[in-house]
Amino acid sequence: MANFDFDTTWHIDAPINIVFDTLTDSLHWPDWWPGLIDVQPLATGDDRGIGRTQRFTWKSRLGYSLRFTICIVRVHEPSLIVGAASGDVAGLGSWKLQQAGQGTRVGYCWQVRTARPWLSLFSHVARPLVVWNHQAMMSDGRLGLVRYLDELGLMSAGDIPRLEP
């Protein structure tokens, strides 16, 4: 199995509660996050979202697909969402939000290991490509979120960068 420890930071010019609400509404992520093909609800969880379980299908820039389930295990509104992953990858993902002036600093930590033999082999051989792919998809997510919030009038985005094809 290959282990990965990814840390991503986004700066979003929107209030923390808006960013938190958008990130907790993962059923709508495919509306704004390129590469996310589908999200299927499996369990609703409690009133804070603990126990909410969803199946995600991602199509990487490298052409392979990843399917995994995320079960929310911890939530502290509006600053933390932690989910346990199982499927093609297994581990933990955590969104950490902090108010930064009028905007929000978003940190995402994805600590996973590959769980499928083909993916483990590919990840060992092509590790730099896997890292590049993750970084590119996270960058696409940030740009998609900025555009989405701007279209809803929830942020002041002066010059919104274009997504690369």
UniProtKB/TrEMBL annotation:
<dbReference type="InterPro" id="IPR019587">
    <property type="entry name" value="Polyketide_cyclase/dehydratase"/>
</dbReference>
<dbReference type="InterPro" id="IPR023393">
    <property type="entry name" value="START-like_dom_sf"/>
</dbReference>
<dbReference type="Pfam" id="PF10604">
    <property type="entry name" value="Polyketide_cyc2"/>
</dbReference>
<protein>
    <submittedName>
        <fullName>Polyketide cyclase</fullName>
    </submittedName>
</protein>
